[in-house]
């Protein structure tokens, strides 16, 4: 039995750090293990321009505790007013690594997202030219589409037409939750990748709904049936370079989750690597964890892999149940099992 696993230091290719006091509270949870993260721009107001992304990056670095190493990889929030030139300049300077598409109304803080795709065509064409990837929250928002079908319908009615229209555009389907999404990525030519979250590998919709509604398992896209969870586990553990880790760790204070209308997001930064090691071992694929968490993402983003290492050891450990913040506690994702692994050490170099 493997007792110890050394992998390159991982990255998180989809992360919510928020701002202010919350940023300060949650950033160490990520920086402890991860060298870099693609930082989502859905602040209020959103991070739309290169200047806003630069200022947000400065705030993140200022919130980083002394002695921790972490590189925020910035993204821009695509709006119908986004200026292609501003995007190109922010990319050329090295500041911005992706642009994020939120269909308006699809998820937390997505009100400024895209309604009319013809309005963003010039930006997308420019991104295709310069090789800047588009990250997509892939769900349609029409009231007549069932919430469990919104990802599959997005692929057919938005993503596939968009990719046929602008084939050179590099796209990352964020936080995929369905076998349809995994199949779509597998069948696509180069230039399409997908992030998979920790929680969608750990739970399915039964965990969310059976025996009582569990608000800390509610996220978007909502967890689907067990067969989809299995399809995600198969994709993540396959070693296929188009699938990589994006935790979508999304902190909300308990008061905003444990209420009559709880908001969407699971906070997984703290225990992600332990949960992943457990899941990969269940799938007899511990040897594929490094590819998923540390190699495939940099390859897609055309960035070097990290020099540092992360050491996992077979031992259970207690992770905190909650992270305290000045705004209130944030509950750490409970995978429903005790991970058989823990992170023993991390080296930056
Ligand atoms: N995943 C979520 O359920 N929530 C995210 C937004 C997102 O990634 O869609 C958040 O910002 O809280
Ligand atoms: Zn999303
Ligand atoms: Zn997210």
Automatic annotation (TrEMBL):
Pathway: Pyrimidine metabolism; UMP biosynthesis via de novo pathway; (S)-dihydroorotate from bicarbonate: step 3/3. One of its GO terms (cellular component) is cytosol. Keywords: Hydrolase, Metal-binding, Pyrimidine biosynthesis, Zinc. Its EC number is 3.5.2.3. Binds 2 Zn(2+) ions per subunit. Its cofactor is Zn(2+). Transmembrane segments: none annotated. It holds the Pfam family Amidohydro_1. One of its GO terms (biological process) is 'de novo' UMP biosynthetic process. InterPro entries: Amidohydro-rel, DHOdimr, Dihydroorotase_CS, Metal_Hydrolase. Zn(2+) 1 binds at residues 14, 16, 100, 248. Substrate binds at residues 16-18, 42, 137, 220, 252, 264. GO terms for molecular function: dihydroorotase activity; zinc ion binding. The active site is at 248. Residues 12-310 form the Amidohydrolase-related domain. It catalyses: (S)-dihydroorotate + H2O = N-carbamoyl-L-aspartate + H(+). Zn(2+) 2 binds at residues 100, 137, 175. The keyword Zinc applies. Catalyzes the reversible cyclization of carbamoyl aspartate to dihydroorotate. Homodimer. NCBIfam families: pyrC_dimer. Belongs to the metallo-dependent hydrolases superfamily. DHOase family. Class II DHOase subfamily. This is Dihydroorotase. The lineage of its organism: Bacteria, Pseudomonadati, Pseudomonadota, Alphaproteobacteria, Rhodobacterales.
């Amino acid at each position: 039995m493997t007792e110890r696993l050394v992998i390159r230091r991982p990255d998180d290719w989809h992360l919510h750090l928020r701002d202010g006091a919350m940023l300060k509270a949650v950033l160490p949870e990520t920086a402890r293990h991860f060298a870099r993260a693609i930082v989502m721009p859905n602040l209020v107001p959103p991070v739309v321009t290169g200047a806003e992304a630069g200022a947000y990056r400065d705030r993140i670095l200022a919130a980083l505790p002394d002695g921790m190493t972490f590189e925020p990889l910035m993204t821009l929030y695509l709006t119908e007013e986004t200026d292609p030139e501003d995007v190109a300049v922010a990319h050329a300077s090295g500041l911005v690594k992706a642009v994020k598409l939120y269909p308006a109304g699809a998820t937390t803080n997505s009100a400024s997202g895209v309604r009319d795709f013809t309005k963003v065509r010039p930006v997308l064409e420019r991104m295709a030219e310069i090789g800047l990837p588009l990250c997509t929250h892939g769900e349609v928002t029409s009231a007549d589409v069932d919430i469990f079908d919104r990802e599959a319908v997005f692929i057919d009615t938005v993503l596939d037409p968009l990719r046929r229209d602008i084939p050179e555009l590099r796209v990352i389907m964020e936080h995929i939750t369905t076998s349809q999404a995994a199949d779509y990525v597998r069948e696509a030519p180069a230039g399409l990748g997908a992030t998979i979250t920790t929680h969608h590998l750990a739970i399915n919709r039964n965990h969310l709904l059976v025996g009582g509604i569990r608000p800390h398992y509610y996220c978007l896209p909502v967890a689907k049936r067990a067969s989809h969870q299995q399809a995600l586990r198969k994709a993540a553990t396959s070693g296929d370079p188009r699938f990589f880790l994006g935790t979508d760790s999304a902190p909300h204070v308990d008061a905003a989750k444990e209420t009559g209308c709880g908001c969407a997001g699971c906070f997984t930064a703290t225990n992600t690597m332990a949960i992943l090691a457990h899941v990969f071992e269940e799938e007899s694929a511990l040897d594929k964890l490094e590819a998923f968490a540390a190699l495939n993402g940099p390859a897609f983003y055309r960035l070097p892999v990290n020099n540092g290492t992360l050491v996992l050891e077979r031992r259970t450990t207690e992770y905190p149940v909650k992270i305290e913040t000045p705004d209130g506690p944030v509950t750490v994702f409970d995978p429903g099992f005790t991970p058989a692994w823990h992170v023993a050490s991390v080296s930056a170099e």
